[in-house]
Write a structure and sequence with these properties.
The chain is of the alpha/beta class. The protein contains eleven helices and ten strands. It has helices spanning 36-54, 72-88, 104-116, 191-201, 215-230, 265-270, 276-283, 295-315, 325-336, 341-353, 359-373; strands at 3-6, 11-14, 20-26, 58-64, 120-123, 127-130, 167-171, 185-187, 205-211, 235-241. Strand 1 and strand 2 form a beta hairpin. Helix 4 (191-201) packs across helix 5 and helix 8 (295-315) crosses helix 11 (359-373). The chain is elongated.
Length: 386
């Protein structure tokens, strides 16, 4: 079964075997065009799903779209663009794609429940804050030793009880607003995801994923809110991918640091490279390590992708043979071990060079593993050779 690094425990933990599992992730932002830093955590979710489905686990994936405060027309345009990027990277579509603006009732009900149970308090002018003092586990996910200082939460509006308390509800400032017991307003920056996750997946979520830039404050706040409302730990495993960081520099708040490379997937296609070269470049690096996604890295990945597809097309014309089971077991074992895709790819390259293995066996092994790698390795079968 899959073992994954749990951000909360700081250890590689096994995903408990089950017939079905629920996973929640935040969609790329809809106030701007998604960048490659947004797509790396999306690939993490896709890999988790594909590996677990190989273990015959039925996945229900919920991708929450936070469109609060965004003009509807532009939000939908960015949302559709992100969906096209996901398709170009062979990311499986989620079963559920709730939008925050369509869950006003659930958001208001969640905030009201937190106030009623003493986990939140109303302030003058239509503001509601989460009471961080009532969440003893607050700070465990991010590892912040002093989460009550420099927490990144908005500090406008009335005085709150303590610096770490964050906004659950605020009066509207010219944007579309919703009715609530505290007056017309909009939710704070974190509560809509808790409401969407609870409404669509219930109060037990097996895995939640995202980029490391979301751990604090967004996921820290989500955990506190959801657990306070449910009365128990809602998310069983937290998995996060590192951002894109040239030269080991720390990624920015959107998960990407500008460098010698594209920012958006469209630039890759415009340069004549296969978009799946981005997927392969991601797979060549472990998801928890920083990655400098330069043009040289992408050109090398594109060349490798074309070579592997040509080899698979060549092997497809050979007599059929049972797949190279020993190689497949090694690659699948690497994938089960915290999604060690670099090792799995090295196993494939070793198999490619092994002259003792019949071409037909190589063909079957590459096709089998491509169900998880999703690089469209059979794409050149039947095409004229150059």
């Amino acid at each position: 079964m899959l073992r994954i690094y749990d951000t909360l425990t700081g250890q590689v933990e096994e995903i408990a075997p089950a017939r079905g599992l629920r996973m929640y992730a935040c969609a790329p932002p809809v106030h701007r065009r998604a960048n490659l830093g947004d797509l790396r955590p999306a690939l993490l979710s896709d890999l988790i799903r594909r590996v677990l489905e190989r273990h015959r686990v039925r996945m229900v994936v919920c991708l929450g779209v936070d469109d609060v405060g965004c003009p509807v027309e532009s939000a939908r345009a960015y949302e559709e663009a992100s969906a096209r990027d996901a398709a170009a990277l062979n990311l499986r579509s989620p079963e559920l794609s709730p939008r925050a603006a369509e869950h006003a009732v659930e958001v208001v009900e969640l905030v009201a429940a937190l106030v009623e149970r003493g986990h939140a308090y109303a302030a003058d002018g239509g503001w509601v804050f989460f009471d961080s003092a009532g969440s003893p586990s607050y700070g465990e996910l991010s590892g912040e030793k002093d989460p009550h200082g420099g927490d990144g939460f908005p500090h406008d509006g009335p005085e709150r009880r303590r610096p770490a308390d964050w906004v659950l509800w605020r009066p509207a400032d010219g944007e579309p607003a919703w009715d609530s017991p505290w007056g017309r307003g909009v939710p704070g920056p974190h509560v809509a995801c808790s409401a969407m996750s609870s409404r669509r997946l219930g109060d037990r979520v097996d895995i939640q994923t995202g980029g490391t830039e979301l751990i604090f404050p967004h996921h820290e706040a989500m955990r506190a809110q959801s657990d306070a409302a449910a009365g128990h730990e809602v998310v069983r495993r937290w998995a996060h991918s590192a951002g894109l960081a040239p030269g080991g520099r720390v990624p920015g708040p959107d998960g990407v640091t500008p460098g010698d490379g594209p920012r958006e997937l469209a630039e890759v296609a415009e340069a004549g490279l296969d978009p799946l070269a981005v997927r392969l470049a991601f797979l060549r690096h472990h998801y928890r390590g920083p990655l400098d996604l330069t043009w040289d890295v992408l050109r090398a990945a594109d060349g490798t992708l074309r070579r592997l597809r040509a080899r698979v097309a060549e092997w497809s014309e050979s007599p059929s043979a049972p797949m190279a089971a020993a190689y497949v077991r090694r690659a699948e074992s690497a994938l089960d071990d915290d999604l060690d895709t670099p090792v799995a790819l090295r196993v494939l390259e070793e198999l490619e060079r092994d002259d003792a293995v019949p071409p037909g066996a190589k063909f079957e092994a590459f096709l089998h593993l491509d169900h998880v790698l999703a690089l469209d390795l059979p794409a050149d079968i039947g095409k004229p050779r150059p």
